[in-house]
Amino acid sequence: MTDQTRTASRAGSSGPLRGLRIVEFAGIGPGPFAAMLLADMGADVVRIDRPGAAEPDQRDVTGRGRRTLVLDLKQQDGAETASQLLDAADALIEGFRPGVMERLGLGPDAVLARNPRLVYGRMTGWGQSGPLAQAAGHDINYIALAGALGAIGPEEKPVPPLNLVGDYGGGALYLVVGMLAALIEAKASGRGQVVDCAMCDGAASLLSIFFTLLARGQWEERRGSNLLDGGAPFYGTYECADGGFIAVGALEPQFYETLCRLAGLDDLEFRERTDRKRWPELRRKMQSLFKTRTRAQWCAILEGSDACFAPVLGLLEASTHPHMAHRKSFVELDGVLQPAPAPRFSRTPSAIQATSAGSPAEILARWRASRSGD
């Protein structure tokens, strides 16, 4: 570990969601990430694993911050223990295909009949209804159908943007927002509800600004020809002399002028940046220029200015960059480097909570006691 990262210690419940009780039915992808975010913000999250599941792995960053129970939900006693936990819970997260929870006797009708205030969060790729609801899929499939994947990448072919747009952006973040909204409403009405979070819906919602541009005639459905898809020479990435890359995003005229001045883009052709027909040639000239210096040299010239510049860093590099180190954006816990909780709160700071095995009796006793004080 370097002095530019800090060691995180596990804390007790802390954060603005302290006192919130959530049951997470173990899954993959956006469900665990959503549970991690809620746990970081102080929620008491209990994860229910299936028999035979692997032991908790401290290297699993998205699995941090909750206690784990192993229950066989196909057996009556396991399902009843889960139901008792849900009786005392505020919210539930599940990411199975539609109908699975119903077959286990833990669907919304059964659970809400016992605990009418429960917020029932359902995380799927295709949603609870529709022709594809029962089909298998992954992030790449959901964002493809939503129109997002087709807009990302070079003209030759679409490029998967990791799993950030579907799983985490259109999935986990929308699930967290939806659940928190439903929890606020439940405080007033005394009634919970189902939050049907589909990654294809969330990915489509993330495209809102691009539908604005499309309606205004400012967006071409051809990759690499638009302002934000790498088509504009002043918004993209460039290789440097050492093989490293830099990113420039000088969209506004004043920032573009700063980029041109500091980088030495003094050819008069660079002043014609609004002419899209000239973009390919301007990009080629910028590529040639940026290859004349190393990434570190361009950082010395451009970083910290209004040129809208940043070096393109790898995961380990990002953790040691002076700005990210100053912000303590990454922490080290039990030897595992990982992102720190986000966002930040001035009065009720988030913290990484302990990850441990739990006892149903202990959890039920504590949750029932806290529920009686609500």
What's the topology here?
Blueprint: E1 6-7, E2 21-25, H1 30-40, E3 44-49, E4 67-70, H2 76-88, E5 91-94, H3 100-103, H4 108-114, E6 119-124, H5 139-146, H6 164-189, E7 193-198, H7 199-206, H8 208-215, E8 235-239, E9 245-249, H9 253-263, H10 279-290, H11 295-302, E10 309-311, H12 315-320, H13 322-327, E11 330-333, E12 336-339, E13 356-357, H14 360-372
Parallel strand pairs: 1-11, 2-3, 2-5, 3-4, 4-13, 5-6, 6-7
Antiparallel strand pairs: 8-9, 9-10, 11-12
What's the domain count? 2
Instruction: Please describe the biggest sheet, giving its number of strands, its sense, and whether it closes into a barrel.
Output: 7 strands, parallel
Mean pLDDT: 93
CATH class of the largest domain: Alpha Beta
Shape: elongated
What is the oligomeric state here?
A: single chain
Rounded Rg? 24 Å
How many helical elements? Answer: 14
CATH topology of the largest domain: Rossmann fold
CATH superfamily of the largest domain: Crotonobetainyl-coa:carnitine coa-transferase, domain 1
How much of the sequence is in beta strands? 5-15%
Contiguous low-pLDDT stretches (5 residues minimum) are 1-7
In what order do the strands lie side by side in the largest sheet?
Answer: 7-6-5-2-3-4-13
How far the N terminus sits from the C terminus, by CA atoms, comes to 43 Å
